[in-house]
Amino acid sequence: MSQKTIAVVGAGIAGLAASIRLARAGYNVSLFEKNAYTGGKMTVYEQDGYRFDAGPSLFTLPHLVDDLFKLCGMNPRDHFNYIQHETACKYWWQNGKKLVLTAQEEENLRAIAEEFGGEAAASARKYFEDAKEKYELTEPYFLQQSLHRAKTFLNRRVLKVIRAIPRLGLFNTLNEENEKYFNSPELVQLFNRYATYNGSSPYLTPGIMQMINHLEHGLGTYLPKGGMHEIAASLTRLAEKLGVNIQLNSPVEKVHVQGKKCEGLQVKGETLNFDAVVLNADVHYAYEHLINIGVKRPKKTLAQEPSTSALIFYWGIDRSFEQLDLHNIFFSKDYRKEFDQIRSSEDFWLDPTIYVNISSKVEQEDAPEGCENWFVMINVPPNSTQDWKAITLKARKTIVARMSRVLGVDIESHIATERVLDPVMIETYTSSAGGALYGTSSNDRMAAFLRHPNKKLGGYKGLYFCGGSAHPGGGVPLCLLSGKLAANWCIEDLNG
Ligand SMILES: Cc1cc2nc3c(=O)[nH]c(=O)nc-3n(C[C@H](O)[C@H](O)[C@H](O)COP(=O)(O)OP(=O)(O)OC[C@H]3O[C@@H](n4cnc5c(N)ncnc54)[C@H](O)[C@@H]3O)c2cc1C
Description:
Blueprint: E1 5-9, H1 13-24, E2 28-32, E3 44-47, E4 50-53, H2 63-71, E5 82-84, E6 87-92, E7 98-102, H3 105-116, H4 118-143, H5 150-153, H6 158-164, H7 174-181, H8 185-192, H9 212-219, E8 222-224, H10 229-241, E9 245-247, E10 252-258, E11 261-267, E12 270-273, E13 276-279, H11 283-290, H12 299-302, E14 309-317, E15 327-330, H13 335-344, E16 354-358, E17 372-380, H14 388-407, E18 415-421, H15 423-430, H16 447-450, E19 463-465, H17 476-494
Helix pairs in contact: 1-10, 1-17, 3-4, 4-9, 7-8
The structure holds flavin-adenine dinucleotide (FAD).
Residues 9-15, 32-35, 40-42, 55-58, 251-252, 280-281, 290, 310, 312, 426, 430-432, 437-438, 467-468, 474-476, 479 line the site of flavin-adenine dinucleotide.
């Protein structure tokens, strides 16, 4: 029997994971990427002696990368390494309050007690416990399996989740859930931040997002040796080793579906036949530009609100700041107003929450000696018709002024080199709708069920979906799982 052929469209983190799994299962895999590099949003810049991870900076669940090497009979440590950084994040409020959180629960409770009092620490203990329970109850079903297959629910253990529904916070927003635990507005704001981990608003996303706290403070945050981009680079090397035919600079122009069967693709004007196609491209873009008319559009899925985008300044700073760590958050004064402004696309640059990531705090070679590489990001709406040039100038002014005030130094005079990434650029480089970072937002209680399934359902054959806009959603760990779910479904179908 001849080897079956599979095309994967897009070499983002999910496309790479799917390609590896399909090649390992014995299929002949071609991976088409429109850019000259793999990794999609997970890319890297070097400028004037500074190295910047341009996309993701926070890495959780590193075992999901290890799993791909193990699946291929390799020791991950020979190919990909990472460290756990002691400090998870440093938080700064404009009223002078500060907090440093780590992956050590007792240490965190001590720090919370010191800044916010013993009662807040007791609430935080309960919060951490409940976040763990929510994570452990739902992760095997909501993340590790498809929500669109009956077999996920034909399982006696699902009953445990169903019984726990009243405790999962599905009927409250994250903000309402957090206000049940904490009186301090600063702590509510801190734990509300988890909504942004998939580009949502804490005032709309369900309280189950509390489980993200367990990812960060229970299971820990990591940094790959060589920087975040090493995740994509090491998976690219693994895919090549397995014989995946990676074709860069190869934008797929069409996905051909005849009747209800996906027959293949058009690339550079040429029609290529495949037994199956896995799309890692954003689903909005795919239905608008790639999948032929006549194929049923998933209207409810496509009507979902996109996740937030970001405006990022990559600054080479010609000195170092002892007060700062790998991850630093400088909160806005009024979080609700900030999210209202993001959703209405108005004035969101006036008092934004500022995230500063400095990988040279850990990887010294990322910046010249005595200097630092700052990745400075604010959440912004996805691109519609905004004037990003004007917004960038205003946002930059606000950020420089605030950072200068907090650090007591004129930051402007220490910016040795600069680069900017805005939503239009993110959209252009990765085809994600409006430059959304995480596909669709979870600003809806049913969002998890409305994400695109990992297979085109409704009797269609041979078309699969992975990546931030497909189940289970955006962010590096979920995209790795998405690649797994799409590949496994495809393998099951091809094996009959
Ligand atoms: C600035 C920024 C910060 C972030 N921070 C974090 C973080 O700290 N932690 C975290 O976990 N996540 C973070 N994310 C989100 C995370 O990067 C993404 O969720 C994840 O990388 C998306 O992977 P993906 O597989 O969906 O594909 P993408 O990265 O979106 O890649 C899709 C690929 O498909 C290609 N493609 C599209 N159309 C075609 C076509 N027609 N033909 C061929 N190729 C095509 C694109 O060129 C691209 O390479 C961040 C993202 C950004 C941009």
